[in-house]
Automatic annotation (TrEMBL):
Keywords: Endonuclease, Hydrolase, Nuclease
Protein name according to UniProt: Uma2 family endonuclease
Domain Putative restriction endonuclease: 13-170
Keyword Nucleus carried by entry: no
Keyword Ribonucleoprotein carried by entry: no
Alphabetical list of InterPro entries matching this protein: Nuclease_put_TT1808, Restrct_endonuc-II-like, Uma2
GO MF terms, alphabetically ordered: endonuclease activity
PANTHER family, per the entry: GLR1098 PROTEIN, RESTRICTION ENDONUCLEASE DOMAIN-CONTAINING PROTEIN-RELATED
Length: 193
């Protein structure tokens, strides 16, 4: 006879309180907690370059964070908390200075271990956030940016090296090559002859 596995589900409030004072960050998926893996040098460099571009252009009253600010989502009766690679929000925050619930822009840099989650689970949950205007997924292996916008019903737009895209949420034109400028060799933009 098979036996069901019993999971002890953690309330979101307990997770949020416990997450403030930890050495290893975790994400929350409707009661289950998953430790986050560290990111590669290429991943961090891409995220830093993109974040810096947004930060220097962001209008007053808005803020941008890289990797350490949580977003909390309630979607179809379930609760989630993630650490987006980049998140921008405008206006007032919740009572919790460690959490945002009103982002206008979220960016995730893909890795082999996160691609499925970023393009399915997180896509479904992020796009349920009423304030979110754009979700951007950046490859760390090749110069490829996928952009999803609320105003186009989250239809995918793809941009490659040599192209520029507009982030309407923060009123910023972004050359794809700028995001990858410090990792040109790693993503195949500088090929030795």
């Amino acid at each position: 006879m098979a036996h069901a596995i019993k999971y002890d589900l953690t309330p979101l409030e307990d997770y949020l309180a416990g997450e403030r004072d930890v050495d290893i960050r975790s994400e929350y998926v409707d009661g289950l907690i998953y430790a986050m893996a560290g990111a590669s040098e290429t991943h961090n460099t891409i995220a830093s370059s993109f974040n810096a571009l947004i930060e220097t252009h962001l209008r007053d009253g808005c803020r941008v964070w890289q990797s350490d600010m949580k977003v909390v989502i309630r979607n179809k009766g379930q609760k989630f908390s993630y650490y987006p690679d980049i998140m921008a929000a405008c206006g007032d925050n919740t009572d919790d200075l460690y959490v945002r619930t009103n982002p206008i822009l979220i960016v995730e840099v893909l890795s082999d271990s996160t691609e499925r989650t970023d393009l399915k689970e997180k896509f479904d949950n992020y796009t349920s956030i009423p304030t979110l205007l754009e979700y951007v997924v950046v490859s760390q292996d090749v110069p490829l940016v996928r952009l999803f916008r609320r105003r186009t019903s989250w239809e995918r737009e793809a941009y490659r090296a040599g192209e520029t895209f507009r982030l309407e949420s923060v009123e910023l034109d972004v050359p794809v090559e700028h995001i990858y400028r410090r990792v040109r060799k790693e993503v195949g933009m500088d090929v030795s002859r």
